[in-house]
Amino acid sequence: MTEPLHVNLDGEMRDGRHVMPVRVYYEDTDFSGIVYHANYLRFMERGRTNYLRLLGADQRGLFEEAEQEAPGFAFVVRAMTLDFFKAARMDDVLLVTTATDEVKGASIALHQTVTRGDDLLVEARVRVAFVSGGRARPIPKALRIAMRADQEAGGG
Predict the structure, then answer these.
(1) Which residues have C-beta within 8 Å of that of residue 81, sequence separation ≥ 6?
(2) Annotated catalytic sites, by residue?
(3) Distinct helix (H) and strand (E) counts, the chain
(4) What pTM was estimated for this model as a whole?
(5) Which of 18, 90, 123, 129 has the highest Cβ tally under 10 A?
């Protein structure tokens, strides 16, 4: 009997940063065979989503507490700046890294990079707002503390 393959599809936390591998598929590329620029946004969205998933998983009850304090909460992108440096191609394995730069009352500033080996391909600064009931709300204390702990661990 073979052992089950244990792959962390959500990436992992390393030194206060979320790191997630992404393989480039044919569907991610344009007619010239390079990754279409908008697909980097998808890769980074997965990185942010999985960062929050692992943050909640690492600290049991964190998201339940946030849900009690702000029912129906969500994080939405408020602003984003991107710099494109190099192109990725089909079958490349990329690393999407997400780190918290700043946690404020109702928003979080994140720094994200997409790399291939030592090559920086894309860098983004993202401001994400915490909303509940369709309005910006203060980030619940437990979640704010967890994000600040990750920020400190990552040197942010």
Answers:
(1) 124, 125
(2) 30
(3) 3, 7
(4) 0.82
(5) 18
